[in-house]
């Protein structure tokens, strides 16, 4: 089925006066969200995931508690104590070790309940959202809290993709859409019509490094990053940042195409400035426009 719009998810009604629960993984996005809440007087409470959230995330008077990834019961209880009504799941989560995953009773019951549905990240996240909302709290996307954070459509940099780049983007869209339907990954690297690599468990940055080893002479590779077709906009949106651009430049990439209206650019002005410095392109794309007729 063709995607007819940039954002085909219905808008979730939420109340900005309600206390926001922030489940914080790694990266810059949790910092951005906390800063936004502070500036806009939005009440909030942070659950920082140990081994994932930055050590300096919760400093000063930031209301928070640290929990292991397997402590869902502790997290639900603390959010209820704090009067949290809406929750944002934001930041990167590394694959946990066995020690980190040792569950409390709530988490054990959760995994027992979902059983065979735990096939891939999307299935687990959908089940987790259902479990959270059964506790009387609503999961919302960061874009519902912070307006205008999603990638805009069109070329965002001084340099635009040329015709050959657009052919590679079209190829990448076809591959990423097919693999995304299987909950495999969000990113594909294409060079001169050849797929150099697809994202698996290693993540985008390691995919870029790996593909640098297979790069051919001539026209440089392009990274294409899309939201999976069945992926919930409230969690795990495709994201690029300064590290993505640095890595792509180091491996000789020409540019990056990212899903407009369905992805995030962390520190967008700095990312665009860095891409301009390296004479790379970044383009927000609508995959439907690249589908073969």
Biggest sheet strand order reads 6-13-11-9-7-8
CA radius of gyration is 19 Å
Unreliable spans = 1-5, 8-13
What name does the CATH topology of the largest domain carry?
Answer: Cytidine Deaminase, domain 2
Could you tell me the strand content as a percent range? 15-25%
Task: Estimate the global geometry from the Cα principal axes.
Answer: elongated
CATH superfamily of the largest domain: LpxI C-terminal catalytic domain
- The number of helical runs is 10
Any idea what the CATH architecture of the largest domain is? Answer: 3-Layer(aba) Sandwich
Kindly name the structural category. Answer: alpha/beta
Number of domains: 2
Helicity, as a percent range = 25-40%
Q: What's the N-to-C terminus distance?
A: 13 Å
Q: What summary fits the major beta sheet? A: 6 strands, mixed
What does this structure look like?
The protein is an alpha/beta fold. It folds into 2 domains: 20-145, 3-Layer(aba) Sandwich (Rossmann fold); 154-290, LpxI C-terminal catalytic domain (Cytidine Deaminase, domain 2, 3-Layer(aba) Sandwich), CATH 3.40.140.80. 34% of the residues lie in helices and 18% in strands. It contains 10 helices and 13 strands. The chain has helices at 29-39, 72-81, 98-101, 105-114, 121-134, 142-145, 163-181, 204-212, 242-250, 268-277; strands spanning 20-24, 44-49, 64-67, 86-90, 138-139, 154-155, 187-191, 194-198, 222-225, 239-240, 255-259, 264-265, 281-285. It has a 6-stranded mixed sheet with strand order 6-13-11-9-7-8, sandwiched between helices. Helix 8 (204-212) runs parallel beside helix 9 and helix 9 (242-250) runs parallel beside helix 10 (268-277). The chain is elongated, with a radius of gyration of 19 Å. Residues 1-5 and 8-13 have low confidence and may be disordered.
């Amino acid at each position: 089925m063709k995607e007819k719009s940039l954002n085909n998810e219905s808008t979730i009604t939420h109340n900005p006066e309600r206390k926001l629960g922030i489940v914080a993984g790694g990266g810059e996005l949790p910092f951005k969200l906390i800063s936004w809440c502070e500036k806009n007087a939005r009440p909030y409470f942070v659950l920082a995931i140990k081994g994932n959230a930055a050590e300096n995330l919760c400093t000063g008077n930031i209301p928070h508690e640290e929990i292991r990834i397997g402590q869902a019961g502790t997290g639900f209880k603390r959010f209820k104590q704090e009067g949290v009504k809406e929750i944002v799941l934001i930041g990167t989560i590394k694959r946990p070790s066995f020690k980190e995953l040792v569950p409390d009773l709530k988490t054990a019951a959760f995994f027992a309940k979902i059983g065979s549905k735990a096939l891939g990240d999307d299935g687990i996240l959908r089940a987790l959202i259902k479990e959270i909302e059964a506790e009387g709290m609503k999961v919302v996307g960061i874009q519902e809290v912070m307006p205008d954070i999603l990638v805009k459509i069109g070329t965002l940099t001084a340099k635009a993709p040329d015709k050959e780049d657009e052919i590679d983007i079209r190829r990448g869209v076809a591959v990423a859409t097919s693999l995304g339907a299987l909950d495999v990954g969000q990113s594909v690297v294409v060079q001169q019509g050849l797929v150099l690599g697809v994202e698996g468990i290693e993540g985008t940055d390691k995919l870029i490094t790996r593909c640098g080893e297979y790069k051919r002479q001539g026209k440089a590779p392009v990274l294409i990053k899309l939201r999976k077709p069945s992926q919930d906009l409230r969690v795990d949106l495709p994201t690029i940042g300064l590290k993505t651009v640095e890595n792509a430049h180091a491996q000789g990439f020409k540019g990056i195409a990212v899903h407009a209206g369905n992805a995030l650019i962390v520190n967008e002005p700095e990312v665009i400035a860095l891409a301009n410095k390296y004479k790379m392109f970044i383009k927000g794309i609508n995959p439907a426009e690249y589908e073969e007729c």
